[in-house]
Amino acid sequence: MKGKVFLKNIISEAPYSLGKYFTYVPFKYRLGKEYTKSKEKIHFFDNISEDEKLSYILERLNKVVNHATSNFSFYQKFYGDYGLLNKEIRTLEDFEKLPILTKEKIRNHVDTFKGVMKINTGGTSGEPFSFYIDKNAFAREWAHIHTIWELKGYKKTDIKITLRGKNLGDKNIVYNPVNNEFIINTYKSLALFKEELINLFKNYKIKYVHGYPSAIYEFFKELEKLISLEEKYLIQKNIRSCFFGSEFPMPNMTKYLNEVWNLDYISWYGHSEMAILAYDEFKTNDYKPFMTYGYTEVFENKLIGTSYNNFDMPLIRYDTGDLVVPKYKNNSLLESFSVSKGRGGDYIVDKSGKKIPLTALIFGRHHKIFDVADFIQVEQKKNDLVIFYITLKDNNIEYIENYFDLSNLNIAYEFKILSSPIRSKAGKLKLKV
Fold it and tell me: Has residue 215 got a pLDDT over 90?
């Protein structure tokens, strides 16, 4: 094991001149056998009948439920309280009789499970949560992620730049041969290493940009102010698409990237608990779940996921906390879902108690503020005061309220100007803070 770790460290620190040869190594050798198995399952599932797909899902649901109830006291008591122990799952309706698992329900029972990989998540939503995943989880996830990227022509030898908020210390750009990517330091001003960036695009054929939508948006907004038209052409001439992960792509961001930089994109939905992975191929907020990754369902507009493969800490009918609008196939399998109110319930509540989705409040009213601002974020205080945090493009402006259409809204509000948007420790940007 130590030898493998040592080899991985050597490879990850190799410069491009050496690391580029590693990119020709197939992912099945880089990431392990589970990667290849997952790719084969994706292909298999896409080419079988609807009845066969249903049988595939039921077989895996039975397996994980039986394992959970046979090995973990938490599930023995949880299902025992509902009189549902040792019940065979013959139909999806049988499975739907199992109770919904919430983060609150399982948070205090993590110690009853065991595994080699412990993950922490949820801190930015105010609901910290620790859980175990199995050792092959990342190989499976990469198999599905690469399947999404391949819709945009991605190949393992293609070079990308990545903007995900990783702490690079004092370094501006770091090459990672494992993913054949140049990681950009998103915590440093591009003005400090503009020439290094220009040389990066001059010397390497960068085909893709991968990262949080807000980080990519901010990168290109800042870059636009620093470069000439000739340099802009140099940068954009080889880029085929953006890969958006971890955040919902906001309309103002995608509009800018398309109109100013002529950039295409594809986005996907996933979460740290690794029960659901879905992608929006046609940029219509219509996410198609991989039923080979886990079983995805919707209950009372709540997005619910079950991982087939996490036998270290099974998450069965796990409530993601996201509200969606479902679309179904004829045999009741979920075809796709649209994110209706955003992750964690992105809405405000007016004085009458009515919930107002932030996507409608911010993007549905076509505020003039987007002519002068790069970012808008919203917070609602306990006294119902709504605060709009605004990161301006240039200097301060007067009478900022004139740039908003807040007519016919029963809310109390104020505005605060920020020099930069509010981000999580991981570098993510949320519409609601």
Answer: no
Contact status, residue 91 vs residue 58, Cβ threshold 8 Å: yes
Instruction: Please report, rounded to a whole number, the percentage of residues in the chain having pLDDT higher than 90.
Output: 58
| Contact (CB, 8 A) for 216 and 261 | no
**For the stretch 342-369, what's the b/e string if a residue is b when 16 or more beta carbons lie within 10 angstroms of its beta carbon?**
bbbebbbeeeeeeebbbbebbbeeebeb
CATH of 36-138+273-339 among 3.30.428.10, 3.40.50.1240, 3.40.50.2000, 3.40.50.12780:
3.40.50.12780
Residues in the chain: 433
Query: What's the predicted TM-score (pTM) here?
Result: 0.82
Q: How far apart are CA 201 and CA 237, in angstroms?
A: 9
Pair 280, 267: CB distance under 8 Å: yes
pLDDT digits (tens, 9 = 90+) for 285-326: 999 999 999 999 999 999 999 999 999 999 999 999 888 999
- Cβ–Cβ under 8 Å, residues 114 and 71: no
**Token code pair at residue 159:** 């070079």
Please name the amino acid found at residue 214.
S
